[in-house]
Write a structure and sequence with these properties.
Blueprint (H helix, E strand, L loop, with lengths): L1 H21 L3 H23 L6 E3 L7 E3 L1 H25 L6
Antiparallel strand pairs: 1-2
Helix pairs in contact: 1-2, 1-3, 2-3
């Protein structure tokens, strides 16, 4: 799941940079937006289906717990995918004028 989340995060960044630098045609924008929805769904599935340890005790012995490194990478990949999806949808709806 970790490798899948890293792959979808990198693919999402490439998708964003493609929109920002080359401004695809309207037909390709819909294809790219659909691909971003798929990437976000796959990353969400990877976060939900994560089988490893998600948290560990704090380093100084406090009550709260922190994410493990592998789950933190999956979680931040999900957040990044959601952010890119939000920006692309807002651009397509006309709320944002330029990437």
């Amino acid at each position: 799941m970790l490798i899948l989340a890293i792959f979808t995060g990198v693919a999402s960044l490439f998708n964003y940079f493609w929109w920002a630098n080359y401004m695809p045609s309207p037909a390709l924008q819909y294809v790219s937006l659909a691909a971003q929805v798929l990437l976000t769904a796959v990353t969400a599935a990877a976060a939900i289906g994560f089988r490893g340890r998600r948290t560990r005790k704090n380093y100084d012995g406090a009550r709260f717990k922190v994410f493990t490194l592998s789950y933190a990478l999956v979680f931040f990949s999900l957040l990044g995918n959601l952010a890119v999806l939000t920006v692309l949808v807002l651009f397509k709806l006309g709320v944002l004028k330029a990437l």
